[in-house]
C-alpha cells in the first residue's frame, strides 16, 4: 500500500516531485522530494528519531562533501530523510513541522536542483538504510493541470537553468499545479520528472492515460502513473539543452529549462521544441 502525504504536510513546501530524480528510490514514485523556503527543513513526518548517519556524497564543486540520513519511526513505517544536517538525535520525538536541521546542498544533486528534503518510507521489518524497495508514495492534494504551448519569457535563472513565465499559475499559493499531459488536449493529469535527462517520469492524476505528450509532441508511454520517456531531445530557440524539469508547484511556477551550457537570460523570448532522437544522458 502506498504511503499518502497529506495536503497539510505538502503545504509546508512550495514544490514537490515524485519522479524528478535519477536515483532508484524514485522509481515508480517510491520517494518524494519536498522543497521548503529558506535554509531549514520542517519535518514532513511525526515520530521517534531512530538514527542519524553521515554519508560521503559524490564530489561536486558546488556541493557539500557529506550528506546525511535521518530515520524516523512513524509507527506504521520508517521514514528515510536525506539532504538535511540533523539537529535531532536518536530517541527524540518530532512532530510535523518541527525543525529537523539545515538543508544540505549535496553532491547527489544536479547543479540546477534547489535544496530539498528527500523522503521515502520502508516497512518496519525492512532494512531502513537501503533505498531500493521503498514503499510507493502518494499525495492527498489535487494538482491542477496547466497547459503549455512551449513558449515563454525567461523571468529567473542561473548558470544551468532558466524559468519561464509560462505556463502561469492561475492562483499562486492557493494550490499545486503542474504542466498538463497534452494527450488529446484534455489535460490528462500532470507530468513529473526530468525530460528526457532522467530515464523515466511520472503522470500524476490520471493512471489511465497510456501516453504522455508535451507541447504537442508525444514524449512517452505511461504504465499507470509511471512514464518511460521516448528517445527525444529538447531545444530552446533551436539550441539543444539537457531538458525540462517537471514538478508540482504552488508558487513561482513556469517551465524550468535545465542544462550545463544553457544560454538564456532574463527577458529572452523562448520557444521550446521537442524532436525525436538524441535523448539526454540520465546520469546527472
Automatic annotation (TrEMBL):
Residues 4-139, 144-275 form the DUF8155 domain. Pfam families: DUF8155, DUF8155_C. InterPro entries: DUF8155_C, DUF8155_N, Dup_hybrid_motif. This is Uncharacterized protein. It comes from Haloarcula quadrata.
